[in-house]
Amino acid sequence: MSQTKDSQRPHHSFAWRLFHFLGTMELAITLLITLAIASVIGTVLQQNQPYPDYVIKFGPFWFEVFESLGLYDVYSALWFLIILTLLVMSTSVCVIRHAPSMFKDMFNLRTNVQLKSLRSMHHRAEWLENAETNVTAANLQSFFKTKGFRTRLTEKGDDTLISAMRGGMNRLGYILTHVAIIVICVGGLMDSNLPLKLAEWQGRLEIETQNLPLSQIPQESRLPVGSQAFRGSVSIPEGRSSEVVYLPMRDGYLVQKLPFTIAVDEFRIEHYATGQPKSFESDLKVYDPDLAEPITTTISVNHPLIHKGYAIYQASFGDGGSELALEAWPLFADQGDAVTVETKVFETREMRWGEQQMLLEMTGFRPFNINPDPTEDDPKNVRNYGPSIQFKLRRETGEAFEYENYMYPVEREGREFFLSGVRSSPAEEFAYLYIPADENGELAGFIQFLQNINDKQRVEQIATQMKNETLLSLQTEDDQVLGQSLQKTLVTLVDMFIRGGFGEVRDFIEQTLPETERDSLAPAYLAMLREMLGRLYFEGLDLAADEMVDESELVFMQDAIDAIGTLPRYGSPVYLALKDYTHIESTGLQIARSPGKSVVYLGCAFLIAGVFLLFYLPQRRFWMWLKKDNQQTRVYLAGMSNRNPREFDSFFEQTRAELKAQAGNSVKS
Amino acid sequence: MTANITTQNSDKSLLVTWLWRVLMALSAIGIISFYLEVLDVYEISIIILTAISMAYLGQDWPGFRWHAVAVAILSVFAVSLYGSDLNQSDSNFWLNYLLASQSAFMWMSALFVMATVTYFAGTLFRSDFTEKVGTALTWAATTMGMIGLMVRWRESYLLGADIGHIPVSNLYEVFILFSVVTALLYLFYERRYETRSLGGFILLIITAAVVFQLWYTFERNAHEIEPLVPALQSYWMKIHVPANFIGYGAFAMAAMIGVAYILVSWRQQKQGDSAWLRAMPSLHLMDDLMYKTIALGFAFFTLATILGALWAAEAWGGYWSWDPKETWALIVWLNYAAWLHMRMTKGWNGVPMAWWALIGLFVTLFAFLGVNMFLSGLHSYGTL
Ligand code: HEM
């Protein structure tokens, strides 16, 4: 008993069951959806950013968690590749299982049908033809042939069966569509950096994470010329050349040697009349030892150069070490002119300001900035903000502020300001210092005022003046005590203002005045400070005694006071302005070798052909069973289609009508 | 006797078909020889392919023939009114009130909204005539939209020879393309299946697009013609974008049929029978149409994604970079692949598939809009 039961339920090996499982539709659909959901991650979290950015974003704990999950490069994470592999395996199994029957279905005219099954089909008809069976058969066959059907005649005892089929290629569509998925994934694999990862895993390669000059990059991080796939980039300044390209890997890179040298003559950006960029182009010379002459060509976006299977694309551009002459204006000194500093983009140099030792790291330069106002959120207000420089000032403690200075002033309510952005980390937005431009549109007016305020002697002098006037107005000229304390207060107020702006003054009031007097005294203190600042300003102007001060002077002064009030938070003892420059650009090239590309394209061709065949070439079959009926022939017609049932309804009706019309008479359905 | 009439009819329609084909061939030849100096071989191929597809579409679709002829005549008229002076759009009566691209788009918007209302009214009051007016309005709207695109194409060249480009390059332009393509797809199926009572539903999503479009115009001045960034200066754009929008349009249509399906089956369960239910197509037919439109969308979306990959290989140095837009295209594609399998091999149908089609629309919408709004990547043109 038990034996028969066992033999009825066949034992399958593990391999067989695995194979079966891989081919199930449930798995296929689950994988499709899982892959879709997994893909979302990489679009929400920006991929392949510098690792410090992620640390800033997520904090050290989550940074590590996400890193171990491979979320910074999801699409080459192990678990993602496993899902892909499973999908490819599932599709392969599916094709292997279905292909044989599909092939058969493509050509098989199904001649082994029975009359009974024909008469039970949904689409059927029958009638009597006024002709011998063989004549009828010939007529029917030629009718279907003209309609593009393949036909076959089979003798069924005394009867005759004609089978007809059109659109057998629909089944080829199935095979092509599914094979395409496999082919595309194989091609993609050929172009992936999986071999590099493997080599790294085995310890044959080491990812370089530091920013080293090429000559210092160790051998373990270099790849020789070979036939492997890669995709990397390199930035080459005008007038220089490169024979390597850098492949980004996780938080570092590898160096790939090229079998030729690429020299850049010139990089150009052309602009539309509106200022938007119109084209990015590089004039290249490619020196290949195999060629007698170098290749001289110009590449641009959408027009790469392809040489020996290496494709060279215009991808980006940047500064190639522009030479800059800067003016450094002291912000906390009582006199002195700007100091000229000669430097280059990407150069780091030491600077000394009084006691302070600092490193000036030039990080960027742009010869013009045709863009929206950087301080506003209005994308339409586009104009030229002139050249800009980006730099970092690093203190001895190692902390650094980052700056961005624009050379043309921005306009605010009719007044003009020089903009200097500052931030303490790349994660922050720039905060802006607005330095008012003087009546000549220059910095000098502001600097003059600043120096007046910083001039201790002058401050004392004006404080004395003000004290005397006050005592006079109170008619207590000889109150020494009051006079001294007033003078001291005035000087201290200015001092505090220089040290910490209005905020510092307010803190002082909060902390030192008793609460009961605060409300009445605080405005008086602020008024005194303003009066001091005003006098310091006008003192510097050499006005004639009775000259009227015009509105714009007052506004300028107010703006300047606001700016000086924010200087303590500016974090730099100097303001850097650009005096002169020689612009040297570098072109960013992307260089790729993708041996799998033609495989992928073949897969794509399969996919398109397959999908259109599958959807738009329905497979239609007809059968006609011919039975001798005296001198006449009885015709049993049946038909079916594997898709578009609605269209087939009318197609069948039409075919039947045409056949009947051809038969002409004695029609009885 | 009856046989005679049918042959006469088919003789006549055969004649029309041939005339139409000849007209398309002549138009293609005319355009190519007129612009020969500025066209490259790819663009010539695109023109020939367009002519062939139009010849095919028009061979037994009279509405499409009239539409194409009207678009051609009125666009040429508008272009001739412009001459070489863009300012004509303010001074010339015809341009100002009808044919300048902005005016044409306004007409399109108004007509689409009217068509939506009319279709719904026709179904609700069971008036065939009203529904037919809905169809006519939809044709008119589509025609105005297409004219607007054609004229805008010319206007961009009048703005500057180097600025000129086909108007499928930013979010504003593709929204119009979306409305026009979706409407044409619907009109195609409406004629085949006599499904006028679905018109309101499908036009609803077009109306939504139109409302967005108007907001985008008035709030963000998005209608201004902008020059092309270097990455978009390629003939690929001319085929990649339209193929994509046939996909999007078909998916949107499937989703709206899904909505109609869900409503109808819900009302059927609740009250069994009503005038509105009788006016709506059968569940079976809607199910079938939903499948057909998703299949169409899937086919064209596949094509578009592959064209995109070919273009990316040329512009960015790799056929696939896992850029957010690419990845979302893959997500959309996988989603509909799963839908099709469910239906074809598991035989699922009915309400769950209708819901899935509707969810598919949101996935598609994110790929189309959300990526531009929320994510950054290589495709980051046309932000809001
Ligand atoms: C990325 C993977 C796949 C893609 C893109 C894909 C694509 C397609 C498409 C477009 C269709 C046509 C559906 C229709 O007629 O509406 C189809 C049908 C089908 N697929 Fe897949 N497929 C995939 C994987 C699979 C797998 C893994 C299996 C097997 C488990 C499978 C089995 C089938 C079957 C049996 C059909 C029905 C064919 C027919 O009779 O028309 N597919 N597939």
In short:
The complex is a heterodimer of chains A (669) and B (384). Chain A is α+β, with helices and mostly antiparallel strands. In chain A, 41% of the residues lie in helices and 30% in strands.
Question: Care to describe what's here?
Answer:
The complex is a heterodimer of chains A (about 675) and B (about 375). The two termini of chain A are about 55 Å apart. Mean pLDDT of chain A is about 90; it is low at about 1-5 and about 665-669. In chain A, strand 12 (about 325-330) and strand 13 form a beta hairpin. The radius of gyration of chain A is 42 Å and the shape is elongated. Chain A is of the alpha+beta class and about 675 residues long. In chain A, strands 14, 15, 18, 19, 20, 21 and 22 form a 7-stranded antiparallel β-sheet that branches. In chain A, strands 1-26-25-3-2 form a 5-stranded antiparallel β-sheet. In chain A, strands 4, 6, 7, 8 and 9 form a 5-stranded mixed β-sheet that branches. Chain A has 16 helices and 26 strands. In chain A, helix 5 packs antiparallel against helix 8 (about 170-190) and helix 8 (about 170-190) packs antiparallel against helix 15. Chain B starts with a helix and ends in a 10-residue tail after the last helix. Chain B has helices spanning about 1-35, 40-60, 60-80, 90, 95-100, 100-125, 130-160, 170-195, 200-220, 235-270, 275-280, 285-315, 325-345, 350-375. The longest helix of chain B is centred in the middle third of the chain and has 36 residues, at about 235-270. Helices cover about 80% and strands about 0% of the residues of chain B. With about 375 residues, chain B is an all-alpha fold. In chain B, about 45% of the residues are buried. Chain B contains 14 helices and no strands. The chains are: A alpha+beta (about 675), B mainly alpha (about 375). Chains A and B meet through helix 3, strand 8, strand 11, strand 24 and helix 15 of A and helix 12 and helix 13 of B. Protoporphyrin IX containing FE sits at the interface of chains A and B.
